[in-house]
Amino acid sequence: MELNMTGFPEEQLLPEGYQFNLSDFALFLSVMKNKDAYENTLSIILDEPDLKLAEVEVEQVVLNESGKRAIRLDAWARDVKNRHFNTEMQNDSKNDNLRKRSRFYQGLLDTPILKAGKKTKYRYLPSTVIIFITQEDIFSCDLAMYTFTEQCEEVAGLHLDDGTKKIFLNMTSKNGRPELISLLQYMKNTTLDNPEILVRDKRIRKLDQIVKEVKQSEE
Asked: Between 178 and which of 38, 54, 108, 198 could a Cys-Cys bridge form, CB atoms 3.0 to 4.6 Å apart?
């Protein structure tokens, strides 16, 4: 069944009085293209209060070399440390394998960065963080945040340190940092009156201000 950008089937009209939330694809894209909004969002997710973004793009298309399969990134960003971020709002996690999707995205994100030639060094590959925001707990461990990095199975604590990280956020769990839980609940029910918001810190208040401005705009 085809879904529109709100997550409702194409032929289904929006319910009367429907409130757009950040979990709705259209509002998520419109808000995340604002650098301050995306910066505050990533700051909370990564628990980095001083995170600063240098560049932001939404709906960026990345082709593989043969052009057989492309990906359209929901929200991409690069910070002042040259780390690359991709954040996907995934309302339907049942009809796809997000684990393998994250693997495919990781490969395609790296492909256009390095140019061909003997002088090209892999050490110049930037660190990348891929984030999927879901409304279901795909790992069934009741955590709000699951973070995956490459590490050795034979030696405990030996990390590959290849600069990659995959994060899956789960809106259904209340087990996590209060700021993160508050952000996810705000995305689910986008109003500061939402009783599920535990902490209304300045980043969430700033995000709410941008959301209101976007909702009021003609776009």
From this structure: 198
